[in-house]
Design goal:
Blueprint lengths: L1 H21 L6 E15 L2 E8 L8 E4 L3 E8 L7 E4 L25 E7 L5 E7 L9 E7 L13 E10 L4 H11 L8 E4 L16 E4 L4 E8 L5 E6 L4 E6 L2 E8 L2 E3 L4 E7 L6 E9 L11 E7 L20 H8 L20 E13 L12 E7 L2 E3 L6 H7 L9 E2 L21 E3 L1 E5 L4 E8 L8 E5 L4 E8 L18 E2 L1 E4 L3 E8 L4 E7 L2 H6 L2 E6 L21
Parallel strand pairs: 1-4, 3-8, 9-12, 11-19, 20-26, 22-24, 23-25, 25-33
Antiparallel strand pairs: 1-2, 4-6, 5-7, 7-8, 9-10, 12-17, 13-16, 13-18, 14-15, 14-17, 18-19, 20-21, 26-31, 27-30, 27-32, 28-29, 28-31, 32-33
Bound molecules: CU-O-CU linkage and copper (II) ion.
CU-O-CU linkage (C2O) binds next to strand 5 and strand 32.
C-alpha cells in the first residue's frame, strides 16, 4: 500500500503547490466571441437603433463556476470605440482586462477587437458585465452567473429554477445624442423613457403590453432570481405581489438569508433572491419603480412584469400588484441596506481589516463649473454641472492611466496628482448650505502600498443637488462596516461598526446627507477606477483611480501587459 499512498499524496502535493504558485484553483476555461454592433428594436411605439452585443438586449450571459477562467473576444463592429468591464470581478493582478476607458485601456476602435481574460477567484453568485465607455452601458450589458465549484454547493437548498432578471434604462433617442446634448448645455441629461425588466418596459407604457416579460413558475417550486441593476441614473425599489423574497446573496457573495417584501438596489448592485411559488395559481405583478430623494430630474415611470403559474386556471381580471415604500422613502432604503450581512461561517470566512493603515475621509458632491463666455452653458447663468470627490472633479486622461503607470516604471508622481485624504476645507458637511458650489478639476488618484488596510468613509454634502450616491470600486470587493445619517463622527461612529459580519460588496449606497464606511485590504496591485455608478455623475467627474502598488514578489505584483492592448492613437 505504501507506494500508492505516496503517489496520491505526491499528486495532492503537486496540486497544492501549483495552487500556491498560480494563486488560484484550476477551474475550467470558457471562451466567448462577441460582436458589438448596432441593432434596431421597436419599443414604446418607436424604432430605435442601439448598440448591442450579438444583437441582444440585455446582452448574452456568461456562465462559469467559481475559480474558472473566461476569455471574451470583443469584435467592435459598432460605429465608435467601446470598452467592456466585468463588474465585481476582482481580476487578481490583472487590471489589463478590467476595461474602464482611459483608466486601464483605450477604447476598442470601430473594426478592432480585443480579447480579455476574466479570472474568477472568490466570487460566487451573480455579477455582470457592461460597456465602460461613454454611456454605451445603456444597452451593452449582461449577467455573469458564477455557480459553486464542483464538489461544493449553495449555502441553501438547490433551487428548482434559476432566472436572471435585468433592469435597464430605455431611451427612444440615441443615448450618445442624449449625452452629447447634456455636455453641450452643461445641464442634466434628458431622463430615460422607460425602465425595462429583461428588456421589456411592461404594460404601463405605450405599445408594450404584448411583449411584457413573464416568468413561468410551478406551484410549490423555489426559484433563484439573479437580479442586476444596470439602470443609468436611478436607484430602484422592486417587489412581487403576494410573494416575499429571501435575499441570499449580493454582488457575488452570499449573505445571511433574510426575507423582505421589497428590494432596494442601486445601479451596479446585484441581488440573489429566492422566491417560492406558494400562492394560488394565477398571475402576479413584479414591479420596478425608482427611489429618489433629490430635486434633480429623473425618470418617474414604473416597469412591470408578470409571474405566471403553470396549470389550468382562469386568467385573473385584476392582477395583484405589490405595495411599495414611497418614492423618496430613504428610511426604507436604508433599512434594507443594513439587513445585508455576510455569512461569516467556516465555509465562507471573512477577514475585515482591523489595523487600519490608511484612513480616507471623502466628500461626495454635485457641483458647478463656470463656463467661458458664450459656450452655451445654461445652468444658474453661465455654468455647467460638475461632481467631485474631496472637491476634485476627475478629468479622464486621453491615454490609459494603467499603461502610463507601467511605462513610467510604476512611478505614480509622473502620471497624476494625489487626491487629498480628506476634504481640503472641513465644514459641517450635511448641514452647511452656503459652501461654494464651485469645484476644481484634475486627474487625481489615491495611492496605496501593497497590503495597506484601508478604510474609506464617503460623506454626502449639502452642496448642490443632494441625493444618494452608489459608489463602486473596481478590482476589489470590500466590507460595508457602517452607514448613517448626518456627519460621520470619528469619535463615536466607529464603535458601532459591524466588524463581525459586514456584507462583502462592490457597490454601496451613500445616503443623501449621510455617510457610508468601507474597509478592505489593498492586496490587488493595479490601477482601479472608483466612481459613482450614476452615469451622469461619472461623466461630471465623481470619480478617481485607486493605484495599489506592487508588493515585493512576482505573486504580489501586477502581471505584465498582454501582447496586445487596444492602441490609444
Ligand atoms: Cu459597473 Cu466602473 O463599473
Ligand atoms: Cu452620484
Amino acid at each position: 500500500m505504501k507506494p500508492k499512498m505516496g503517489l496520491i499524496s505526491g499528486v495532492l502535493g503537486f496540486i497544492f503547490l501549483s495552487a500556491l504558485l498560480f494563486g488560484k484553483a484550476h477551474g475550467a476555461v470558457h471562451s466567448y466571441y462577441w460582436v458589438v454592433k448596432e441593432t434596431k428594436f421597436t419599443k414604446l411605439c418607436t424604432t430605435s437603433t442601439v448598440l448591442t452585443v450579438n444583437d441582444s438586449f440585455p446582452g448574452p450571459e456568461i456562465h462559469a463556476q467559481k475559480g474558472d477562467t473566461v476569455f471574451v473576444t470583443v469584435q467592435n463592429d459598432g460605429p465608435y470605440g467601446i470598452t467592456i468591464h466585468w463588474h465585481g470581478v476582482r481580476m487578481p493582478r490583472n487590471p489589463w482586462s478590467d476595461g474602464p476607458e482611459y483608466i486601464t485601456q483605450c477604447p476598442i476602435k470601430s473594426g478592432g477587437n480585443f480579447t480579455q481574460e476574466i479570472d474568477l477567484s472568490t466570487e460566487e453568485g451573480t455579477l455582470w458585465w457592461h460597456a465602460h465607455s461613454d454611456w454605451s452601458r445603456a444597452t451593452v450589458h449582461g449577467a455573469i452567473k458564477v455557480s459553486p465549484a464542483n464538489g461544493t454547493s449553495y449555502p441553501f437548498d438547490e433551487p428548482d429554477g434559476d432566472q436572471t432578471i435585468v433592469f435597464s434604462s430605455w431611451y427612444k433617442a440615441n443615448v450618445m445624442d442624449v449625452l452629447d446634448e447634456s455636455i453641450s448645455t452643461g445641464d442634466d441629461p434628458n431622463v430615460s423613457d422607460a425602465y425595462t425588466i429583461n428588456g421589456e418596459p411592461g404594460d404601463l407604457y405605450d405599445c408594450s403590453n404584448e411583449t411584457m416579460y413573464s416568468l413561468l413558475v410551478e406551484k410549490g417550486k423555489t426559484y433563484l432570481l439573479r437580479i442586476l441593476n444596470s439602470i443609468l441614473n436611478e436607484e430602484m425599489f422592486f417587489a412581487i405581489a403576494n410573494h416575499s423574497m429571501t435575499v441570499v446573496g449580493s454582488d457575488g457573495a452570499y449573505v445571511k438569508p433574510f426575507s423582505s417584501d421589497y428590494l432596494f438596489i442601486t445601479p451596479g448592485q446585484t441581488m440573489d433572491v429566492l422566491v417560492t411559488a406558494n400562492n394560488s395559481a394565477s398571475y402576479y405583478y413584479m414591479v420596478l419603480t425608482p427611489f429618489l430623494d433629490t430635486d434633480s430630474s429623473y425618470d418617474n415611470t414604473t416597469s412591470r412584469a408578470l409571474i405566471k403559474y403553470s396549470g389550468n386556471y382562469t386568467t385573473p381580471t385584476s392582477i395583484p400588484t405589490p405595495t411599495f415604500p414611497n418614492i423618496s422613502d430613504s428610511i426604507s432604503a436604508q433599512l434594507f441596506v443594513v439587513r445585508l450581512k455576510s455569512l461569516a461561517d467556516s465555509a465562507h470566512p471573512i477577514s475585515v481589516p482591523k489595523n487600519i493603515t490608511r484612513q480616507i475621509f471623502m466628500t461626495v458632491s454635485v457641483n458647478l463649473f463656470a463656463c467661458p463666455n458664450s459656450t452655451g452653458c445654461t445652468v444658474d447663468g453661465n455654468n455647467k454641472l460638475a461632481a467631485s470627490l474631496n472637491n476634485n472633479s476627475f478629468v479622464s486622461p486621453s491615454t490609459a492611466l494603467l499603461q502610463e503607470y507601467y511605462d513610467n516604471n510604476y512611478n505614480v508622481s509622473l502620471i497624476a496628482d494625489e487626491l487629498p485624504n480628506k476634504p481640503p476645507t472641513p465644514f459641517n458637511y450635511s448641514t452647511v448650505a452656503n459652501m461654494s458650489t464651485y469645484t476644481k478639476e484634475g486627474t487625481q488618484v489615491i495611492t496605496f502600498e501593497y497590503g495597506d488596510e484601508v478604510e474609506i468613509v464617503f460623506q454626502g454634502t449639502k452642496i448642490g443637488a443632494t441625493q444618494n450616491h452608489p459608489m463602486h470600486l473596481h478590482g476589489y470587493s470590500f466590507y460595508l462596516v457602517g452607514t448613517g445619517s448626518g456627519d460621520f463622527d470619528n469619535g463615536t461612529d466607529p464603535s458601532r461598526f459591524n466588524l463581525d459580519d459586514p456584507p462583502e460588496v462592490n457597490t454601496i449606497a451613500v445616503p443623501r446627507l449621510g455617510w457610508s464606511a468601507i474597509r478592505f485590504k489593498a492586496h490587488n496591485p493595479g490601477v482601479w477606477f472608483m466612481h459613482c455608478h450614476f452615469e451622469r455623475h461619472t461623466t461630471w467627474g465623481m470619480a478617481t483611480a485607486v493605484i495599489v502598488k506592487n508588493g515585493d514578489t512576482n505573486e504580489t505584483s501586477m502581471r505584465p501587459p498582454p501582447s496586445y492592448m487596444p492602441p490609444c492613437s
